[in-house]
Amino acid sequence: MAIKKIAVLTSGGDAPGMNAAVRAVVRTALGKGVQVYGVYRGYNGLINGDMELLNLRSVSDIIHRGGTALYTARSPEFCTEEGMQKAIATCKEMGIEGLVVAGGDGSFRGAQDLTERGIPCIGLPCTIDNDIACCEQTIGYDTALNTCMGMIDKLRDTSQSHDRCSVVEVMGRHAGYLALNVGIAVGATSILVPEVPYDFDRDILQRMKKTSATGKKHFIIIVAEGVGHVVEFAERIQKETGVESRATILGHVQRGGDPTVRDRVLASRMGHCAVELLLAGKSNRVVTIQGNRVMDYDISEALRMKKPFDIDLFRIAHDISI
Ligand code: ADP
Q1: What is the residue extent of each domain of the chain?
Q2: CATH 3.40.50.450 fits domain 5-140+259-304
Q3: Would you call 199 a catalytic residue per the annotation?
Q4: What is the full per-residue pLDDT of the chain (322 aa) written as tens digits?
Q5: Strand pairing partners for 151?
Q6: Best mutation site among 41, 78, 99, 286 for ligand 1, i.e. most ligand atoms within 8 A of its Cβ?
Q7: Does any ligand 1 atom lie closer than 6 A to the CB of residue 110?
Q8: What is the rounded distance in angstroms from the CA atom of residue 174 to the CA atom of residue 5?
Q9: What distance in angstroms lies between residue 5's CA and the mean position of ligand 1's atoms?
Q10: How far is the CA of 74 from the centre of ligand 1 (A)?
Q11: Does the beta carbon of 11 lie inside 6 Å of ligand 1?
Q12: Whole-number Å distance between alpha carbons of 125 and 107
């Protein structure tokens, strides 16, 4: 029997472009005669029945906004069997026959559990870390890259004026894609990522000394969050090179901001696909775009996949920052 009612939620860490994804889900579904509940604050909204039916205008004026109009949350209760059963009971009570989950890998584990218990789910990969293995680019990543680049460009101005070294922490506890790509874009002298072991003397101090000898007077060192403490790094650099050094933690600004064209288009294409998959009777799929083609993977398979770190790009960064 054809699906008549679905729901959409945003969960886990927020990412710019979530709004564009929700808008695409709602408009695609309504265009096909399917009703859509917007569920508030991730899985908590399913547990508490905090949701409302959306119309075409409910998602007006959000495509250009960062954050998520549906709010997001981390829901420890949902990870318990009791919480999960409450969420399922709400879905049954509200007549929800399919659910689109916009979030990261944690949220997809939840979606997998729901699917196994009879609520068909489709995942939309939204995370600024770009750490979903089946996905070349996640929703939010491009915006975060551009946000980081803009802020570090500003730091570069002041580092240049004062002949300083800026040691900058960017997000990425386990994944260095953001650090690597931002590092290249801002012309960093060194880039430290969790995927590649580093030697402080070889990879920072010696590189700074070598480029100093060719006349370079200001430096940018990019450190992914998971690698170490930028304040300690800056102190050590100053002590051992004599170059005045400052630590900057970009922090949560990296999660915000208007989504870029790329993220809006990505989110719109993926959101549209999620509804088509549900209406085609598919479930437990994560939507992805590879080589500019929209595709879908089994969530369980996607969660098992490991994303290879782009070591060639890392080498390029190394070769041109001399
Ligand atoms: P993200 O989706 O950004 O990776 P989290 O890892 O915090 O963010 O996950 C978001 C939410 O998804 C959690 O608060 C929890 O409700 C749910 N979730 C995470 N892991 C699991 C799991 N293994 N089983 C069921 N639900 C999970």
Answers
A1: 5-140+259-304, 143-256
A2: yes
A3: no
A4: 799 999 999 999 999 999 999 999 999 999 999 999 999 999 999 999 999 999 999 999 999 999 999 999 999 999 999 999 999 999 999 999 999 999 999 999 999 999 999 999 999 999 999 999 999 999 999 999 999 999 999 999 999 999 999 999 999 888 999 999 999 999 999 999 999 999 999 999 999 999 999 999 999 999 999 999 999 999 999 999 999 999 999 999 999 999 999 999 999 999 999 999 999 999 999 999 999 999 999 999 999 999 999 999 999 999 999 8
A5: none
A6: 78
A7: yes
A8: 37
A9: 24
A10: 7
A11: yes
A12: 9
Catalytic: which of 113, 129, 142, 263?
129
Tokens 């491009």 sit on residue: 142
What the block records as the tokens of 50 is 């905090």
Residue type, 298: D
Structure tokens at 274: 């999620």
Domains 5-140+259-304 and 143-256 share a fold: yes
Q: Are 217 and 134 in contact (CB under 8 A)?
A: no
Find the DSSP H helices in 214-257.
Answer: 230-241
Regarding the beta carbon of 12 and ligand 1, being less than 6 Å apart is answered: yes
CATH architecture of 143-256: 3-Layer(aba) Sandwich (3.40)
